[in-house]
Amino acid sequence: MSLVIRRLDLASQGFLPRSLRGVDLDPTAWYALDEPGARAHPDLDRILSVASALRPDVDIFYGDEVVFDPAHLAQARPLLKSSFDLTHLIAQDYVGWMLLARGRRLIAYCDSAPDADLCTYGLLLHCARHDARNERVPEALSVRPTPRIPLPSQVRRRLLEHWAREAAPDCSFFDGMAPDSLRIQRRLVDPPLVALVVPTCQATCSVGTAPYRDRPHILNLLESLRDTDWPLDRLSVIVGDDVGDDAIYARAWPFEIRRVDTRRSAGDPFNYAAKMNRLWRVAPSEYLVLMNDDLIPQRRDWLRALMTFAMDPDVGGVGARLLYPDGKIQHAGMAGGVMGSCTHVFIGQQASVATYGGWAEVHREWSMVTGAVFATRKSLLERMNGYDERFTLEFNDIDLCLRMRQMGLRIVYTPFAELTHFESASRGPRRNSPFEIANFLERWRGFLTDDPAYHPDMVKNTSWVRPEEQSDAWWRL
């Protein structure tokens, strides 16, 4: 069965016609919102019929966009999108057009919004505020000869401030890292106690330059915390140390520090998951940041950036933007279905170069983030019994994220918590267990092959995110 779709042409930057209020909208009909001149998918009614049958709870569907001029075949630029992500929408007008909207939702939005706010971005915020569902169709629904002009950030900020009065009254909005992007930040009048949970074997930093080189990573990290934009009397550090030397911890530190002896008997294998489970259970606070010792924060507000999201009850965990000492990206989120399992997106790319869609430069959701920096809550870890200790070294952090996702919680990445990561010093040498790899894939292969935070038409053989070539796409014919 197909559906009849009525078209509504938008003005530039996604503004709806103000005359829409005078139109007798049919609450049971579907409306296609797109700009004049855009070419719609020839089977749009069939696509909508299938999508609405599978997801009758959704009020707005959106799809991928393509900039394509038939006179320049090689210059096609598909913009592929993830499943709906409010965190990403706050940062960027990424959903774009076309939108397929139920008439009842358009009526509700038009009845509540001032004329000046009648735009697709405002419509999406309205749906999010009223628990209406927005969702992606992973297919190009329209094609246009020139790039879409997104709604200016100053207009989006005004709409977000109106949305935040009810949805996030303790948050403010600032310019973001990517061009025309925004950042949400929580106002913390009385910052809570946060515990940093850090495993160490007092490994020495062997790369980089002074003052970090040839000193224990844990000492470098502790000294860097002095400059953190957080009340240091509201900061606690739990260090699990495999070495018996207490000299570092005997120094005068401006924050509370507790050393936990985690030395192992001779021949006792290293189990990172078990070590971290032991450590977070003795933390004195609800809010935790599980983190490696081989890290140096590059922004004073890194902890505020993590806590902006970690304090939301519907967030399971928050990951950071991690850079190698040479300035290349080590972590900006993780995508499933790549190279047979999952991967760190953009790994090895220069951090100064813009990434696909600006994804590494904006806060957004991923299904997985690394455990090298992971902000979460103690009560949640208690509820989940922490890490699965069968994943002794690898996959324990990814498994934790996916179990949180399974509970309906969000996993957020923020680039505003940016740290240099020397990588693996706190874990020691890697040894991938075939049993652990098989166990992980058996548990999560189905999810990874259709990761909602990624896209099925992205390349699967590289971490450098880009769309697959689609020589037979409908818009090329």
Specify the CATH class of the largest domain: Alpha Beta
List how many beta strands DSSP finds. Answer: 21
The share of residues in helices is 10-25%
Uncertain residue segments = 425-429
CATH architecture of the largest domain: Alpha-Beta Complex
Backbone shape:
elongated
| Average predicted confidence as pLDDT | 92
Q: What is the straight-line distance between the termini?
A: 25 Å
The CATH H-level homologous superfamily of the largest domain: Spore Coat Polysaccharide Biosynthesis Protein SpsA, Chain A
Q: Tell me the strand percentage band.
A: 15-25%
**What is the count of DSSP helices, taking H or I runs of 4+ residues?**
11
- Described by its quaternary structure, the protein is single chain
When the domains are counted, the total is 2
Radius of gyration equals 24 Å
CATH topology of the largest domain, by name, is Spore Coat Polysaccharide Biosynthesis Protein SpsA, Chain A
Structural class: alpha/beta
Mind describing the biggest β-sheet? 10 strands, mixed
